[in-house]
């Protein structure tokens, strides 16, 4: 399933039937990213639908979501469920369940591939905590009820495919980590249930990069089942591995530059810093508009080809000759 967002499609590919959360911090553009994905995602020409479940949104955010998804609604591909911050808490608990029930009907009765975007799951978990406290139930970690794990699992595990039936349900939950704490119960428990995560970076956001996806902290555990030869393109997986490896080396070079200064770096280390700039400004930065997979992979090639061929050890010669720099 293509989202049209290069940082996701290239490096943390979303696969039909997967549950892949977005981990964010307060103040980061996670709602903008969620609505962008909901507006431009496709299923490769197959029957498709989007369910957007907003929980605890401000009225301004709710209006922005409606405006962004207007074209998808006009195409008859959108179901929108909005719970604002001043709506009853019990409605916030019902919203994702209603969204997933609609998704299951569209997927397994009508044969569509359905993307369910749910934001913000932290608001949902706080609603569960509030109702639990009102019932006088025994609190668990950070006053959340002890059954929060099974409650979240009862939502996330409703995604997938059914053998013998067309259609699929893919879930993209978005959650903010209070205080940026990834060990907070909501992201912590979500990580045990889901199949990877897309992590947004405050550092990239401070540099003005949108979407601020931290590729080295992000992971799609099903990517190898939905990308590569016969699925996306034969160079996709090897190219993604090379980009991630080069990005890790570039961060080491940046740390070294902070210690000894750029002049003290080797020529190769300076090339890795050039790669990181090309990666950040070319592949990741995407203010608006959907990118095709071909355009996304071209930008990934442009970034890695900043490096000497001797450094591209994860790319076979046949791919370098076909897509990159001939020997």
Automatic annotation (TrEMBL):
<dbReference type="GO" id="GO:0005524">
    <property type="term" value="F:ATP binding"/>
</dbReference>
<feature type="domain" description="ATPase F1/V1/A1 complex alpha/beta subunit nucleotide-binding">
    <location>
        <begin position="4"/>
        <end position="220"/>
    </location>
</feature>
<dbReference type="Pfam" id="PF22919">
    <property type="entry name" value="ATP-synt_VA_C"/>
</dbReference>
<comment type="similarity">
    <text>Belongs to the ATPase alpha/beta chains family.</text>
</comment>
<dbReference type="GO" id="GO:0006811">
    <property type="term" value="P:monoatomic ion transport"/>
</dbReference>
<keyword id="KW-0813">Transport</keyword>
<dbReference type="InterPro" id="IPR055190">
    <property type="entry name" value="ATP-synt_VA_C"/>
</dbReference>
<feature type="domain" description="ATP synthase A/B type C-terminal">
    <location>
        <begin position="226"/>
        <end position="323"/>
    </location>
</feature>
<dbReference type="InterPro" id="IPR022879">
    <property type="entry name" value="V-ATPase_su_B/beta"/>
</dbReference>
<keyword id="KW-0406">Ion transport</keyword>
<dbReference type="InterPro" id="IPR027417">
    <property type="entry name" value="P-loop_NTPase"/>
</dbReference>
<dbReference type="InterPro" id="IPR000194">
    <property type="entry name" value="ATPase_F1/V1/A1_a/bsu_nucl-bd"/>
</dbReference>
<protein>
    <submittedName>
        <fullName>Uncharacterized protein</fullName>
    </submittedName>
</protein>
<dbReference type="Pfam" id="PF00006">
    <property type="entry name" value="ATP-synt_ab"/>
</dbReference>
């Amino acid at each position: 399933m293509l989202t049209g967002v290069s940082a996701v499609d290239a490096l943390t590919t979303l696969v039909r039937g997967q549950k892949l959360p977005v981990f964010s911090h307060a103040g980061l553009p996670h709602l903008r990213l969620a609505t962008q994905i909901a507006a431009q995602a496709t299923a490769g020409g197959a029957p498709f639908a989007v369910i957007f479940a907003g929980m605890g949104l401000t009225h301004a955010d709710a209006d922005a979501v409606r405006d962004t998804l207007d074209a998808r609604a006009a195409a008859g591909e959108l179901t929108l469920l909005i719970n604002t911050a001043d709506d009853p808490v019990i409605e916030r608990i019902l919203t994702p369940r209603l969204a997933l029930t609609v998704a299951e009907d569209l997927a397994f009765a009508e044969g569509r591939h359905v993307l369910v975007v749910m934001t913000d799951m932290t608001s949902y978990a706080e609603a569960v905590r509030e109702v639990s406290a009102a019932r006088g139930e025994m609190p668990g970690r950070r006053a959340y009820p002890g059954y929060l794990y099974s409650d979240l699992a009862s939502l996330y595990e409703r995604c997938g495919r059914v053998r013998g039936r067309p259609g699929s349900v893919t879930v993209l939950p978005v959650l903010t980590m209070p205080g940026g704490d990834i060990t907070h119960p909501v992201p912590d428990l979500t990580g045990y249930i889901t199949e990877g995560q897309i992590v947004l970076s405050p550092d990239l956001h401070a540099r003005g990069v949108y979407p601020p996806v931290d590729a080295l902290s992000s992971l799609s555990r099903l990517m190898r089942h939905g990308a590569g030869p016969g699925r996306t393109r034969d160079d996709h997986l090897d190219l993604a591995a090379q980009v991630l490896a080069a990005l890790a080396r570039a961060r080491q070079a940046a740390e070294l530059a902070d210690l000894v200064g750029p002049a003290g770096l080797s020529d190769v280390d300076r090339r890795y810093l050039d790669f990181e700039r090309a990666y950040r400004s070319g592949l990741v930065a995407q203010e608006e508009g959907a990118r095709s997979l071909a355009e996304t992979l071209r930008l990934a090639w442009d970034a890695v080809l900043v490096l000497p061929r001797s450094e591209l050890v994860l790319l076979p010669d046949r791919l370098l000759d076909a897509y990159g720099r001939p020997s």
